[in-house]
């Protein structure tokens, strides 16, 4: 059988369908590994400077009955820090955020060890009260060097947060280089965050 | 426990979920046999030329009984599932997740197909019913020389058996509806109240009947490719199946669209959501297929179009199933995501679509059209071919828009969404010539139409349409809507005038009118339906809307009417609490002429902790009055409501047109009129 033009033409639907099918297969593979998320939203702030926001109060002994005291932070403090900062936006009423806390605590500890690239974790509690935030941190782990309470959620709007938890990586100078709108996992940390930290340091 | 519930609990001794599970497994085995035994029989007949072409393998006799028993096994599975649902058997995971004791009983049944497992079972059951329907058609014999040949019928049944078996295997392995739950919850989680609507209860069965019905044309196409032969007779046997599946799909889409208009309360009827597009795409190719089959039947051309479109339509229906259930698309409609299911459906899709297209590539050169004279563009088949191309382009455009976001993300890691502006900008320029050509094509004869005669025939419709240009542009504020409405009017007038011309040529009297081929009435009816739907869409494009905060006694003026919020009252429903607003619409303030009274509600369902907006609609021929109560505020004991009021001109025409289109399909299903008009006998 010789291949003529007609044979090639009749092959076209098959080729098109195969292309689509391979694409679908890759997407399914991505869904299982987490590489492909149809609900993902690109954050418009990535590769831009930190947005301006009003200073956030932290956990102080005056606001909570217990002894956990974490200072708040302001725009200036965030942009003039000399270490990369992982800003985690979370809430005590958000289950995935609470589930994420032990891993974040582990992460904060890991980066205090010698040889690890420098990284500090700052937190922003979205639509939360200091008392609730403190209770959760005491129970599930406290990874944050600074914690801002965004009680009415206005700062989160400045940051373009669509849902907690979200995390931003901010390099010295106040540049956002990375963002995720899902929970931080070991896999995500190893594949995306760590290479960025190595290249930054 | 209610006595009826107790009755179904007792009934579950006979129709227990385990019996259902067994029936499902049995159906899978029977479907596999339905596929394999007749295939083997056909293959044996083929390789045994000594017995001549009329030889019959005994294996072929198994085809029909296996089909019926496969369908019966699935109906048994449904009986078990329905027994469990009505008996509130929350030990079944499916029931526990979607039902609750307080749910009204029709929705206990309808809720079964509102989720992945149940809807898949519905899918395979409908497929088995279509196969059984095919099996009940008496095949060719000495008494019925014009019926479908037995070999073709057996082959079709076998091919449908493969599809059934594949999907039943999918059902059994990854989405079994009969899985038990331990520990057994005392109460089910309940169903999303938005889904508790008669429209949505009927939407999946109709839509799936359409989707699945296109499996029969696919079987016809594969059969033609396997035999390496297709002709007008083949198209003649295939046509009713295409038309019935198309009509059901039309109704299913129309009902889904009506539900989103009447229940969701966003004021729209089509949101270009990926899942809606997944239903529209096969409808477009199905429409093209429907017309190609008619051309093939009459003129023995467009054979390859028919085959390719049949493959495409079913494959796109399957892809829709895949997209909804795999979690690839970001859609409001998608079922619970499970990539494992996606892998299974993708495998089935690869087998069926890939196999059919491979067969098409390998064997389509064997299928040649006998040439009865030249193929003229100025003929009915010529215009149908052009419209086929337009429909396929439209389909490709919508497919591109739907698949662009996931593929962009896959290939370039960028997230974006494609919505109404893209689809409006790309589909309207394709739809307008499509409408123009419908109006021309319907008046053309087969083979060749002399342009002069065509022009003469088209003149009255053209004059009527152009005569309405001024009112159209005056009535529709947007010029595009006015233009589209004119094209729709053109389709309607041209169809009606053409039918009138044909009737005029006959001797007058109902009897002779009924002797006209039904297909002419059917085509006229379906095309009028298209025109009416387009007019409805144009009307909805000029919708007037106001969002306003109002206290009791506020008068709002919208669309030349006076809408007055009379009062806000609490209401109690069977499983919800509600706040109801009473809005009286008058033609003028303080006029005695009350047009309608609307009662929109905010309903709070404590079981699901969900708040829904119950839309109030008054359907009127020339425009719907549509009111949504958004929220209620209490400011120092002064209640105020946020109201969203719409005046939707010609809204109900959209779905009315869909029903008329489906009626057109139904009319053509019986080519000859079986009844006679009896004259009254003189006493």
Structural overview:
The complex is a heterodimer of chains A (201) and B (683). Chain A is built from six helices and five strands; from the N terminus they run H-H-E-H-E-H-E-H-E-E-H. With 201 residues, chain A is α/β, with parallel strands linked by helices. Chain A has a five-stranded mixed β-sheet with strand order 3-2-1-4-5. Chain A is elongated. With 683 residues, chain B is of the alpha+beta class. Helix content of chain B is 60%, strand content 11%. Chain B has 21 helices and ten strands. In chain B, helix 8 packs antiparallel against helix 10, helix 11 runs antiparallel to helix 12 and helix 16 (451-467) crosses helix 18. The longest helix of chain B is centred in the middle third of the chain and has 33 residues, at 380-412.
Indicate the overall shape of chain A: elongated
Q: Classify the helix fraction of chain A into a percent range.
A: 40-55%
What's the CATH class of the largest domain in chain A, please?
Alpha Beta
Count of alpha and pi helical runs of chain A:
6
Based on Cα principal axes, name the global outline of chain B: globular
CATH architecture of the largest domain in chain A: 3-Layer(aba) Sandwich
Low-confidence stretches of chain B: 672-677
Distance between the termini of chain A: 63 Å
Largest sheet of chain B: 6 strands, antiparallel
How many angstroms does the end-to-end distance of chain B come to? 62 Å
Query: Helical segment tally of chain B?
Result: 21
Could you please say which CATH topology of the largest domain in chain A applies here?
Answer: Glutaredoxin
- Pattern of helices and strands of chain A: HHEHEHEHEEH
- Global mean pLDDT of chain A: 84
CATH 4th-level superfamily of the largest domain in chain A = Glutaredoxin
- Largest protein-protein interface: A-B, 25 and 34 residues
Number of domains of chain A: 2
What is the typical, i.e. mean, pLDDT of chain B?
88
Taken as a percent bin, the fraction of beta residues of chain B is 5-15%
Strand order across the biggest sheet of chain A? 3-2-1-4-5
């Amino acid at each position: 059988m010789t291949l003529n033009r007609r044979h090639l033409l009749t092959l076209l639907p098959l080729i098109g369908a195969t292309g689509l099918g391979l694409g679908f297969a890759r997407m399914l593979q991505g869904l299982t590994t987490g590489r492909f998320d149809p609900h993902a939203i690109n954050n418009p702030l990535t590769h831009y400077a930190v947005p301006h926001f009003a200073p956030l109060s932290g956990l102080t002994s005056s606001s909570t009955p217990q002894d956990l005291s974490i200072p708040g932070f302001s725009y200036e403090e965030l942009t003039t820090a000399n270490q990369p900062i992982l800003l985690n936006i979370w809430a005590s009423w958000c289950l995935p955020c609470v589930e994420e806390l032990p891993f974040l605590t582990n992460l904060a500890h890991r980066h205090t060890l010698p040889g690890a690239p420098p990284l500090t974790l700052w937190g922003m509690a979205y639509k939360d009260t200091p008392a609730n935030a403190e209770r959760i941190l005491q129970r599930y782990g406290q990874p944050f060097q600074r914690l801002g309470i965004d009680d009415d959620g206005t700062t989160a709007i400045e940051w373009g947060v669509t849902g907690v938890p979200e995390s931003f990586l901010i390099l010295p100078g106040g540049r956002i280089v990375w963002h995720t709108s899902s929970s931080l996992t070991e896999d995500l940390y190893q594949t995306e965050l760590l290479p960025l930290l190595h290249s930054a340091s | 426990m209610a006595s009826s519930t107790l009755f179904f609990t007792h009934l579950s001794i006979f129709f227990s979920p385990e019996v259902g599970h067994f029936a499902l497994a049995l159906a899978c085995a029977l479907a596999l046999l339905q596929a394999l035994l007749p295939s083997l029989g056909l293959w044996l007949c083929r390789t045994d030329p000594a017995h001549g072409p009329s030889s019959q393998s005994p294996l072929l006799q198994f085809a029909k009984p296996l089909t019926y028993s496969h369908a019966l096994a699935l109906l048994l599975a449904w009986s078990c599932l329905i027994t469990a649902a009505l008996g509130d058997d929350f030990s079944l995971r499916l029931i526990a997740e979607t039902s609750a004791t307080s749910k009204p009983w029709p929705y206990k049944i309808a809720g079964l197909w509102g989720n992945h497992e149940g809807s898949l079972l519905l899918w395979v059951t409908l497929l088995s019913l279509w196969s059984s329907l095919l099996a009940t058609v008496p095949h060719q014999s000495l008494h019925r020389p014009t019926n479908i040949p037995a070999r073709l019928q057996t082959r079709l049944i076998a091919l449908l058996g493969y599809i059934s078996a594949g999907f039943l295997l999918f059902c059994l392995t990854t989405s079994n509806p009969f899985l038990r739950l331990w520990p057994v919850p005392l109460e089910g989680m309940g169903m999303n109240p938005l889904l508790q609507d008669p429209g949505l209860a009927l939407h999946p069965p109709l839509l799936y009947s359409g989707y699945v019905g296109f499996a029969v044309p696919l079987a016809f196409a594969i059969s033609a490719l396997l035999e390496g032969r297709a002709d007008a007779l083949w198209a003649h046997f295939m046509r009713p199946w295409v038309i019935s599946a198309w009509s059901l799909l039309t109704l299913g889409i129309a009902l889904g669209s009506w539900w989103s208009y009447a229940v969701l309360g966003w004021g729209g009827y089509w949101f270009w959501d990926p899942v809606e597009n997944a239903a529209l795409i096969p409808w477009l190719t199905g429409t093209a297929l429907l017309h190609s089959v008619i051309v093939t039947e009459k003129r023995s051309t467009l054979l390859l179009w028919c085959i390719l479109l049949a493959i495409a339509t079913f494959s796109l229906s399957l892809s829709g199933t895949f997209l909804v259930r795999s979690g690839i698309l970001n859609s409001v409609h998608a079922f619970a995501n499970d990539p494992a299911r996606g892998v299974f459906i993708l495998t089935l899709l690869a087998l069926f679509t890939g196999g059919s297209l491979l067969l098409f590539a390998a064997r389509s050169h064997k299928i040649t059209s006998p040439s009865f004279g030249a193929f003229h563009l100025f003929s009915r088949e010529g215009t149908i071919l052009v419209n086929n191309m337009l429909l396929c382009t439209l389909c490709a455009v919508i497919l591109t828009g739907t698949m662009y976001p996931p593929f962009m993300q896959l290939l370039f890691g960028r997230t974006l969404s494609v919505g109404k502006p893209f689809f409006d900008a790309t589909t309207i320029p394709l739809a307008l010539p499509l409408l123009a050509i419908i109006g021309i094509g319907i008046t053309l004869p087969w083979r060749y139409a002399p342009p002069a005669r065509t022009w003469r025939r088209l003149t009255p419709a053209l004059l009527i349409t152009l005569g309405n240009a001024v009112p159209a542009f005056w009535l529709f504020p947007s010029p595009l809507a006015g233009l589209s409405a004119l094209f729709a009017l053109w389709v309607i007038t041209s169809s009606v005038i053409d039918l009138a011309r044909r009737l005029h040529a006959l001797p007058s009297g109902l009897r002779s009118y009924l002797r006209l081929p039904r297909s002419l009435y059917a085509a006229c009816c379906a095309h009028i339906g298209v025109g009416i739907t387009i007019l409805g869409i144009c009307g909805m494009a000029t919708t007037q809307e106001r969002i306003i905060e109002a206290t009791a006694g506020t008068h709002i003026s919208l669309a030349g009417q006076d809408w007055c919020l009379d009062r806000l009252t609490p209401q109690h429903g069977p499983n919800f609490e509600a706040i109801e607003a009473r809005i009286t619409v008058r033609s003028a303030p303080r006029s005695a002429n009350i047009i309608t009274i609307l009662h929109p509600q905010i309903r709070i369902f404590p079981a699901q902790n969900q708040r829904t907006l119950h839309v109030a609609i008054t359907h009127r021929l020339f425009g719907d009055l549509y009111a949504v109560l958004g929220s209620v505020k209490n400011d120092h004991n002064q209640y105020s409501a946020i109201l969203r009021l719409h005046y939707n001109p010609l809204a109900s025409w959209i779905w009315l047109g869909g029903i008329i289109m489906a009626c057109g399909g139904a009319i053509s299903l019986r080519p000859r009129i079986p009844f006679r008009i009896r004259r009254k006998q003189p006493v």
